[in-house]
Design a protein that fits this description.
The complex is a heterodimer. Chain A is of the alpha+beta class. Chain A has three helices and 13 strands, in the order αββββββαβββββββα. Chain A has a domain of about 150 residues: outer membrane lipoprotein receptor (LolB), chain A, CATH 2.50.20.10. Chain B has a single domain, classed as Porin (Beta Barrel). In chain B, about 5% of the residues lie in helices and about 55% in strands. Chain B starts with a helix and ends with a strand. Classes of the chains: A alpha+beta, B mainly beta. Chain A: Keywords: Lipoprotein, Signal.
């Protein structure tokens, strides 16, 4: 009997230890991925977003994204729409925060209005696409808790559970490539009912400055609605040397005028 | 006078362009766009005044041209506008924007005709004063005439943004003509309106605004000193209207608190002139239920209280009123959205209901539907009672090139 109790205690301890290890290792992977991408300072990229409904009909949007790296807090980004033409110049400025709600402003070019908007709506679709706002916002380590699941050759699979209860997901299964600067290969999104909602595949990777991996194609498939969204990026510009002044409400208006 | 002014502006733009070509070998971007719009407005009640029409087919054209260089830190921007309408006064053209802009580090400078928007509330735009309202264009007053200006913006990291405006020329407001609706019994010719200032439209005006944000709080404080954008109406005993543009000092406050899905908003002004001084405010909130169906449907609820010390002389008739409304956004590929609302007077039963809906078709067409319903308008409402038979529907279709 004593022996049995001892065995049970040992098993529980090992399981706990494993869980702790899995959490620890998951976090390590996320941190390694974050570290591998540090030091890009700023980037500008054009992208074409193609939305495809379940009947195969497509519509396109053209955007420019400017990003400014921050070390103490989340990154800053400025997104400008160039098409469809009726919304040309519509722009958003986002200050991501590692903890708490992001700050976000919207510029409406038709009436030249800058409007502070709520960043509460994380789970809603970004301009009718299969990308939610939270899928496109800066990925900060602090926004998830982690469980390491599996290692398959170079690929590391980590479960990420969003810290924010306003997230549309219970968990995301993220595949990292540890040989290629911990770049992302695939993300599977599970909805609030824990059923598979979407799969995002990263492809056409390009290495910039010998350090920064950027996927030039992102393909999101919604398994529940059978809709798809493809993001095709142009060449990343890491040489623009953007500064804090390029991420202000004044710059937001200038970008969308 | 206007033509001459525009000529100088063009000349000035030319000088800057030449300078840019010589000095900057970097990439130059050009962008030309054109919007063609057909519109139909139908006023379903019999007109209150003689000569007013019911049907208003209309056509508008909006060309845009922008050129930028120096990595986008220098640009010249142009937006033109022309409308052909049944109402001769609503047939009009304007240069909405034609300005040169340069940005460098923590400052930005603009010179030319430009549009500037100030404010946070939805039902009334009290603080917004830089541009004259294009009053014949829309009922909500959100369309503006291009304002000649020199604008200097200074951006600081810790103290916010400071905007300085030099406004050398005043533009008069246009009122509906004989055939037009939404007018007074007497057709007001804008040229009949006089200025308080002896310099008339050439009075040199100035304005200033400080804008900052602290965490969830966005704040703006502004001051305008010059010829007001709203004419001051004096009604004498015989019912004649004497209207003029007074010289005013106006201080404005804008405040928004963005907390979760709540937006708390406040706009307030104090306007001082020899003939009149008053206080006005709009305060309210907006709450959005987002992604209700898991498919992107957002439903926002809006409520605002409006106060204007001018009482019945308030041009917009919003002296002690309540606005309630809902903004519905489908977040679909066609950007379908609907804004419905109503403004009701807390003292009388006068109510204006409104609906605005828009949707994209294909990649370059949009359609808009608008309705304004004047309901139970009190005969004693000095200004609004003139519009009591002017409920209308509007449909417009635009093609973008």
């Amino acid at each position: 009997m004593k022996k049995l109790i001892f065995t049970v205690i040992a098993l529980v301890a090992i399981t706990n230890l494993n869980a702790q290890n899995a959490a620890e290792r998951g976090l390590q992977v996320a941190k390694a991925a974050d570290k591998a991408d540090q030091g890009f300072n700023s980037s500008i990229v054009n992208l074409k977003m193609t939305l495809k409904n379940k009947n195969g009909q497509t519509s396109e949007r053209l955007l420019i994204t400017r990003t400014l790296e921050q070390t103490e807090d989340g990154d800053k980004s400025l997104i400008v729409f160039n098409s469809p033409k009726d919304v040309k110049g519509t722009s958003t400025l986002t200050f991501t925060h590692k903890v708490g709600s992001d700050d976000q402003w919207l510029f409406l070019p038709s009436i030249k209005r800058v409007k502070r908007i709520s960043s509460n709506n994380k789970s809603g679709p970004f301009v009718g696409s299969e990308f939610a706002y939270e899928d496109l916002s800066s990925q900060e380590v602090e926004k998830y808790t982690y469980t390491f699941l599996e290692e398959k050759g170079n690929l590391l699979i980590v479960e990420q559970d969003p810290v924010d209860p306003k997230s549309g997901y219970t968990r995301r299964l993220v595949t990292y490539n540890k040989e290629k600067g911990y770049r992302l290969e695939k993300v599977e999104f599970y909805d609030r009912k824990n059923s598979l909602l979407k799969t995002l595949n990263y492809s056409d990777y390009k290495l910039y400055k010998g350090k920064f991996w950027r996927a030039l194609t992102l393909h999101m498939v919604n398994h529940q609605s059978n809709k798809e969204t493809v993001l095709k990026f142009g060449e990343y510009n890491f040489e623009a040397k953007l500064a804090e002044e390029d991420f202000t409400q004044v710059a937001l208006q200038r970008a969308g005028q | 006078m206007k033509i001459k002014y525009i000529y100088y502006l063009l000349l000035l733009s030319g000088v800057f362009t030449t300078y840019a070509q010589n000095e900057d070998v970097k990439k130059v971007n050009h962008d030309f766009e054109l919007e063609l719009e057909s519109e139909y407005r139908y006023f379903y009640d019999d007109a209150l005044f003689e000569d007013q029409k019911d049907h208003f087919p209309s056509f508008a054209i909006r060309p845009e041209y922008a050129i930028d260089w120096n990595k986008g830190y220098e640009s010249i921007n142009f937006k033109g506008f022309f409308r052909l309408d049944v109402d001769d006064e609503r047939t009009h053209w304007d240069i909405r924007e034609l300005y040169y802009q340069k940005a460098k580090n923590n400052w930005e400078f603009s010179l030319g005709l430009k549009k500037v928007y100030w404010g946070v509330t939805e039902s009334n735009h009290l603080v917004d004063i830089i541009n004259q309202t294009d009053a014949v264009e829309t009922f909500d007053g959100e369309e503006k005439l291009g304002q000649p200006m020199a604008q200097f913006t200074w951006i600081t990291q810790n103290l916010g943004t400071f905007d300085f405006f030099y406004l050398p020329y005043h533009r008069k407001r246009t009122f509906a003509g004989e055939k037009g609706r939404l007018r007074f019994p007497v057709v007001i010719d804008k040229e009949d309106l006089q200025y308080e200032s002896s310099a008339e439209e050439w009075r040199q005006d100035i304005a200033f605004r400080w804008k900052h944000y602290f965490d969830i709080v966005d704040i703006g404080v502004s001051h305008f000193y010059g010829t007001g954008r709203e004419p001051l109406f004096d009604f004498d005993a015989t019912g004649n209207i004497n209207a003029f543009y007074p010289v005013i000092n106006q201080t404005g406050l804008e405040l928004q608190i963005t907390h979760d899905a709540f937006l708390w908003k406040l706009e307030s002004i104090y306007r001082n002139a020899d003939a009149q001084d008053f206080f006005a405010l709009v305060a309210g909130l907006e709450y959005t239920f987002s992604n209700i169906d898991g498919n992107g449907l957002d439903i926002g609820l809006l409520g605002e209280y409006l106060y204007d010390e001018r009482d019945e002389l308030a041009l917009n008739a919003l002296q002690n009123d309540l606005f309630f409304g809902s903004r519905i956004a489908f977040n679909d590929t066609q950007d379908t959205s609907i804004l419905i609302g109503g403004i009701t007077d807390l003292e009388s039963d006068s109510t204006i209901f409104s609906l605005e809906a828009s949707r994209r078709f294909g990649s370059s067409w949009t359609a808009e539907v608008e309705a304004r319903i004047f309901n139970n308008i009190d005969q004693n409402e000095l200004i609004l009672s003139n519009f009591r038979e002017d409920s209308f529907f509007r449909i417009s279709i635009s093609k973008y090139f």
